[in-house]
Amino acid sequence: MKITYMGIEAHDSCDFDISVHFCAAADFIHRALSSGGVSRSATLVLAYLMLKQNLTLVEAICAVKDKRGIIPNRGFLRQLIKLNGQLFGMLH
């Protein structure tokens, strides 16, 4: 089986800044989906949906929850909320 892998060292800590990986991961996921691939990182999939599919954070969470359970930690969720504000002008 041929696998293309993008590794991101990310600690599951509320203080870890995963937002620096949002754009690169969204680009990687976009390319993978264009060729039939998948990603299993919920936080980065949510960022992808927001950046490439123009979904709000709430819309992205609803879309992913329909397919699998997701539980981003509080720190990752805060960063997604910040991204949501940057993209859609809704500062929380």
What attributes does this structure have?
globular, mainly alpha, 92 residues, 52% helix
Q: Give a quick account of the main beta sheet: strands, pairing sense, barrel closure.
A: none
Strand percent estimate: under 5%
Q: What overall geometry do the principal axes of the alpha carbons give? A: globular
Separation, N- and C-terminal Cα atoms: 44 Å
If you compute it from the alpha carbons, what radius of gyration comes out, rounded to the nearest whole angstrom?
Answer: 13 Å
The total strand number stands at 0
Quickly count the helices: 4
In percent, how helical is the residue content?
Answer: 40-55%
Q: What multimeric state do the chains show?
A: single chain
Average pLDDT level: 87
H-E string: HHHH
Structural category is mainly alpha
> Regions with pLDDT < 50 over 5+ consecutive residues?
none
General description of the model:
This protein is mainly alpha-helical and 92 residues long. The longest helix has 15 residues. The chain is globular and about 40 Å long.
Walk me through the topology.
Elements: H1 22-34, H2 42-52, H3 57-65, H4 74-88
Helix pairs in contact: 1-2, 2-3, 2-4
In short:
The protein has helices spanning 22-34, 42-52, 57-65, 74-88.
